[in-house]
Amino acid sequence: MKVLSLFCGAGGLDMGFKKAGYDIVWANDIDKYAVKTYQENFGNHVVLGDINTIPLNSLPDFDVLIGGFPCQPFSMMGQEKGFEDTRGTLFFRIAEIINDRIQKGKKPKAVVLENVRTLRTHDKGRTFKRIVSILQDNLGYKVYSTVLNSADFGVPQKRQRMYIVCFANEGADFEFPGKVELKKTLQDELEIDVPDKYFLSDKIIPTILSNGTGGYYSKSEIDLKIARPLCATMMKMHRACQDNYVTQKGRIRRLTPRECARLQGFDDTFKFPKGMSDSQLYKQFGNAVTVNVSEAVADKVKDALIRTGEWR
Ligand SMILES: C[S@@+](CC[C@H](N)C(=O)[O-])C[C@H]1O[C@@H](n2cnc3c(N)ncnc32)[C@H](O)[C@@H]1O
Questions:
Q1: Looking at domain 186-279, what is its CATH homologous superfamily?
Q2: pLDDT tens digits along 189-204
């Protein structure tokens, strides 16, 4: 089954689909560092560039479109601008690409999108309603959606994300994957012998451990068994009410990029390109779709396509 991957980042969503037996034929991202990581791990089918300027005729044929489209305009921490923000309009580019395939008589059999949980409630639910209406009424898909938590799929990270799964075939019968028992804790994912730079200085500890204030009040806690959601701006070192800190050898430290990769379901064979900065790696793993969740959804999409006789 040929897959076109939009907003591929370092490839969390792609990794899940690859593991489930799909063939990713083309991928795209605007971030040169993410593309480098993707290329080293998946191959040369990734194209660097702005999806808005990539000619539709240059895209190869594909059966399934996947994309964790940029979520900043829809997240609670952002300005909640939604479709007014240019990044919010990237959903329309996805719709344009699908529509172009429909016009060419090559309607994608399935579409799998991922976004933040708050997409559903953004602008009193209007943004999500519009997205579903475009997929359903304009593009003719049967649409399923739900929120899945990474901690329900074997990784010790609380990460609730919205998954939208669409089928061209009206007869498609799809169900989202069920939970699996969590058998690991954050402590099981820690590296040993971590370089000194990841440990907090005595000077910064009081700031990091202080509770959140105002609208963002939340309790500072370290050594959680299930990690808080990893975020793209982890390099900035948020306070312990928003970020993950652990105690090791009696000292407090932040997570390493490898630990972040593990918490997103990437196994240790996943390569970090030589010279890639921690800052870029934190961003790539903070942005990623958890591989385990992606694989579980991809498996269920595969089952549905097998039932309709469309899997190939
Ligand atoms: C949430 S991340 C996707 C993560 C990815 N799905 C994964 O699982 O690793 C969104 C990605 O969209 C990319 N992006 C933002 N605007 C873009 C554009 N105009 N064209 C192509 N990619 C874009 C960002 O660079 C970022 O990597």
A1: DNA Methylase, subunit A, domain 2 (3.90.120.10)
A2: 999 999 999 999 999 9
Domain map (residue ranges) of the chain: 2-180+286-307, 186-279
Instruction: Say how far apart CA 312 and CA 113 lie, in whole Å.
Output: 21
* Closest ligand 1 atom to 10 CA: 9
Contact present, 116 and 161 (Cβ < 8 Å)? yes
Which of 71, 166, 231, 241 is catalytic? The answer is 71
- How many residues appear in the chain? 312
The CB of 70 under 6 Å from ligand 1? The reply is: yes
The predicted pLDDT at position 19 comes to 98
Structure confidence by residue, pLDDT tens digits, 66-95: 999 986 655 544 455 555 555 557 899 999
Nearest CA to ligand 1 atom 6: 68
C-alpha 49/C-alpha 60 separation (Å) is: 16
Long-range pairs of 144-150 with CB within 8 A, sequence gap ≥ 24: 144/174, 144/176, 145/120, 146/176, 147/117, 147/120, 148/176, 148/177, 148/293, 148/296, 148/297, 150/264, 150/265, 150/290, 150/292, 150/293
Which parts of the chain fold into alpha helices (H)? 12-19, 32-42, 90-103, 126-133, 205-209, 257-263, 278-287, 291-307
Report the distance separating Cα 68 and Cα 87, nearest Å.
12
What CATH class does 2-180+286-307 carry?
A: alpha beta
Does 71 qualify as catalytic in the annotation? yes
For tokens 């793209």, what's the residue? 232
Residue numbers of the chain with a pLDDT score lower than 70: 71-88, 212-218
